Amino acid sequence: MLFRSSFVCSAKNRAGAVHDLLVPLKAHGVSMSKLESRPARGRKGSLFEYVFFIDVEGHRQDPAVGKALDELRSQVGFLKELGSYPRSI
Questions:
Q1: Burial of residue 29 (number of CB atoms within 10 Å: 0-12, 13-18, 19+)
Q2: What averages of pLDDT result for each successive group of 10 residues across the chain (89 residues)?
């Protein structure tokens, strides 16, 4: 069975922020199937102004996906795993 995992994370509003989100995925060979950005709700002028909803191929318990998420978690201000679920074909 094939799986997909979804998570949401924040990034600073600066040049290269999206690139930095993608580096751990590339480094661990994790394929991204969706990237969507939304303005963050919060105080004006906060350090983290955008949240990114990201879907990747694989389950959270897959070694590559787990390592990529752990590395990403150490680089962002906020990361919440939304879940891993069977992928529809």
A1: exposed
A2: 94 86 96 92 64 95 96 91 90
Spacing of C-alpha 69 from chain mean position: 7
* Percent helix, strand and coil across the chain, each to the nearest 5: 25, 40, 35
Is there a contact between 33 and 78 (Cβ–Cβ < 8 Å)? no
For residue 19, what pLDDT is reported?
93
In 3D, which of 21, 4, 2, 23 has the Cα closest to residue 13? 21
DSSP state of 82: E
Q: With beta carbons less than 8 A apart as the criterion, state whether 51 and 37 touch.
A: yes
Dist. CA 22–CA 17, nearest whole Å: 9
